[in-house]
Design brief:
The complex is a heterodimer.
Chain A (H helix, E strand, L loop, with lengths): L2 H15 L21 E12 L2 E3 L2 E2 L7 E16 L2 E18 L2 E10 L2 E13 L2 E13 L16 E11 L3 E11 L12 E15 L4 E18 L4 E17 L2 E15 L2 E3 L3 E10 L1
Chain B lengths: L1 H16 L14 H12 L10 E7 L7 H8 L14 E4 L4 E5 L8 H10 L3 E16 L2 E6 L5 E4 L11 E8 L13 E10 L1 H5 L1
Parallel strand pairs in B: 6-8
Antiparallel strand pairs in B: 1-3, 1-4, 2-3, 4-5, 4-7, 5-6, 7-8
The chains are: A mainly beta, B alpha+beta.
Chain lengths: 291, 205
């Protein structure tokens, strides 16, 4: 192993070891299936909990033990018409609860069911070079109001939202990198929910330390950086929006057409509008298959 | 959370500490003749070595291991593969960006179909290397090589071996640039010989 590789490996170990910091988001099947008429699906569970109250960037007193737990299982699918055009869908199955303060007393709220479905049309331009491959992608998206707004902690917001993202990813035998910027225009929903528009940036950079040609088996180890800005808005109980940067490690293993991914996301910087619960730490694990 | 981190770190460290050693072309070579031939090719600046009954395709972009599954899956449906090799007759090597096909002896190599399948899988084939053992023929002033087992015809470009017509030879050749994308059905495949591995003319020299 040359000194460059040793450096990269050391950096990866360091990042795994000091994950006091935290994670990001990720299009798991960024370049697969890239074959004509290929399709795939992925089941991904995302767990997020926070019991920390923030006022701006500072921790605020939390005498009523306000907290929030969101457990989302994403059912994601992709169909590749040809390598330049793909259709994706993401359906969230949500189970969530929170403690809010109403009338000067803590109140438990919960919600469960199908959330708002996201459809995307990915327009890709791939390049193939000796020793690397990659793609540029533009993805217009639509978020449909398929989630109910009836629960005390609603799983949907009742609005039609439009988004667009631009991404670039590149892969060499030992290195993977991915960059994505996106914008969501959130329109006014039901029950007074009116979330602000959102701008985001995601970055994944990692190494591919192990691959076996005969079994097409291997792993990736990556660092994930996410940045978000959400305009001032509100949900059924209070203000929403703010800025957030998250950082964390990602581990991906694959075997032929099966991929497993696990990641942790820790907020390293948050600045919220008004008084809000921290975004909290995310734990994300999923399995995907392509055909 | 600490348990998860510990697991991730252990898994990562183990993979770095105990990597699977794969030969650059992804295969294990057991025959000393092969080793001699490889050494001979390397000495002549040819960095691809093709085993008998194998076809090697250099493919730009085939470094994305999870997505390379599509290329492997499509190629594994080719007729004439020797599926006793590599599990399905196809080996994708992401380190060299080469795909090796193990062909059953006596089977014609479907050059155009190979090209089409790799393109549809999302990659760009740039060269095809073959190992051909057969007899040299001269037809209409063109030097042809007829595979001894399949009868497939190859047109040898840029060689003055016409004095070896009628002789049996074993060569490593590459399909002429871009010709593999548009080979007419039944027409001889134009190839450039990179190495005359065994032929009596060489031996005489």
């Amino acid at each position: 192993m040359n000194s460059v590789m040793r450096g990269i490996v050391s950096l990866a170990i360091f990042m795994l070891g000091v994950s006091e910091m935290a994670g990001a988001h990720q299009p798991v099947m960024d370049m697969a299936p890239r074959w004509e008429h290929g399709w795939g699906f992925q089941v991904r569970n995302e767990y997020r909990f926070s019991g920390e109250l923030l006022g701006g960037t500072d921790q605020a007193p939390n005498p009523f033990d306000r907290e929030r737990m969101v457990n989302t299982t994403w059912i994601e699918s992709v169909f590749t018409f040809k390598r330049e055009i793909r259709l994706t869908s993401k359906v969230p199955l949500i189970q969530q609860s929170r403690v809010v303060v109403q009338g000067g007393a803590p109140v438990n709220q919960s919600g469960r069911g199908i959330g708002d479905t996201v459809l995307g049309l990915q327009l890709k331009h791939y390049y193939n070079k000796a020793g690397s491959t990659g793609n540029f992608s533009i993805t217009p998206s639509l978020r449909l109001p398929t989630g109910s707004t009836k629960d005390s902690f609603p799983v949907g917001d009742g609005s039609w939202d439009a988004g667009i993202s631009a991404s670039f990813s590149a892969e060499a035998p030992f290195v993977y990198q991915f960059y994505d910027v996106f914008y969501w225009r959130n329109s006014k929903g039901k029950r007074g929910i009116d979330q602000g528009n959102e701008v985001g940036f995601d970055m994944n950079i990692g190494i591919h330390p192990y691959h076996d040609n005969l079994t097409n088996t291997g792993i990736f180890v990556m660092a994930d950086l996410s940045a978000r800005y959400e305009g001032r808005g509100r949900d059924t109980v209070g203000p929403t929006g703010g800025k957030r940067i998250s950082l964390g490690p990602v581990l991906v293993g694959y075997w032929n057409n099966i991929m497993v991914r696990a990641e942790l996301k820790f907020p390293v910087y948050q600045d919220v509008f008004g008084i809000q619960l921290s975004h909290g730490t995310d734990f994300n694990i999923g399995i995907g298959l392509t055909f | 959370m600490r348990g998860t981190l510990f697991f991730a770190l252990t898994f990562f460290a183990a993979s770095v500490a105990f990597p699977v050693q794969t030969h650059p072309d992804g295969k294990t070579h057991r025959h000393s003749d092969s080793e001699k031939s490889r050494a001979s090719l390397e000495a002549e600046g040819v960095d691809v070595f093709v085993e008998p009954h194998h076809t090697v395709i250099q493919v730009n972009g085939v470094v994305c291991s999870f997505c390379a599954y599509g290329a492997e899956k499509s190629l594994s449906k080719l007729d004439g593969l020797d599926r006793s090799e590599f599990g399905n007759g196809v080996l994708v090597d992401i380190h060299t960006q080469r795909i090796t096909l193990a062909m059953t002896p006596g089977t014609e190599i479907p050059i155009e179909d190979i090209h089409r399948r790799i393109r549809k899988a999302g990659y760009d084939p740039v060269a095809v290397y073959l190992r051909i053992a057969g007899t040299l023929e001269s037809v209409g002033g063109n030097l042809l090589l007829k595979d001894a087992q399949s009868g497939q015809l190859f047109s040898i470009v840029g060689s003055d071996r016409s004095r070896a017509v009628g002789q049996s030879v074993d060569v490593q050749a590459r399909v002429v640039d871009d010709a593999f994308a548009s080979v007419n059905d039944g027409a001889p495949i134009p190839v450039v010989v990179d190495k005359w591995i065994s032929d009596s003319v060489d031996n005489d020299e």
